[in-house]
Design a protein that fits this description.
The protein is mainly alpha-helical. It is built from seven helices and no strands. The chain has a domain of 88 residues: Tetratricopeptide repeat domain (Serine Threonine Protein Phosphatase 5, Tetratricopeptide repeat). 52% of the residues lie in helices and 0% in strands.
């Protein structure tokens, strides 16, 4: 064999090894969406609305208990968090895939800075679940960014006292919207 043939064989083996290496790397790394146009964020880009404030949704129970299982007695107590946590979920606490999907769409619209769309979707969710903290946060934040302090205040007053109100107040202050308790 000539040195030229040996060099070509070595190059072919190297290309094959690199191809296998790249194939393994691509398969082990999840793909990430990329857009061709990079939008420029506003001077004060909003943070993602915290999803951690929304309590987890309980899984639905079977339609009817099996005949060998006696139904659980009604919870007793004075309505403390302990008795509420052990009680069976009510119809409005059970998983609702359509509502979850709508909330995810509202978050995506907010994250992509389409605040009008985020407000519209969050409003639909709030018409079905008026105490949904996640959607109330979107309504407050998006209206503060849009400069509509009256609507932001309306939804802010529906937020439960605590960390959510403090975060929304701080976020709206950045957009020169003052919220009051």
């Amino acid at each position: 064999m000539s040195p030229k043939n040996l060099a070509l064989i070595a190059a072919a083996v190297a290309v094959l090894v690199m191809g296998v290496y790249l194939f393994v790397q691509v398969k082990s790394t999840p793909a990430q969406a990329q857009s061709s146009a990079t939008p420029t964020p506003p001077p004060h880009a909003p943070e993602r609305v915290a999803e951690a404030t929304q309590p987890p949704i309980a899984k639905p129970l079977p339609a009817q208990p099996s005949p060998s299982v006696a139904p659980a007695p009604p919870p007793t107590g004075n309505g403390t968090a302990e008795t509420q946590a052990t009680a069976a979920p009510t119809d409005d606490q059970r998983a609702n895939p359509k509502l979850d999907s709508m909330m995810e769409l509202a978050n995506k619209a907010y994250d992509s800075q389409d605040f009008d769309q985020a407000i519209a979707i969050a409003g639909k969710v709030l018409s079905k679940d008026p105490a949904n903290v996640r959607m109330l946060r979107i309504m407050v934040s998006a209206n503060c960014i849009g400069g509509d302090s009256a609507v932001a205040q309306q939804y802010y007053s529906k937020l439960p006292p605590g960390a959510d109100r403090e975060q929304m107040k701080a976020r709206c202050d950045r957009y020169q919207v003052s919220l009051r308790d």
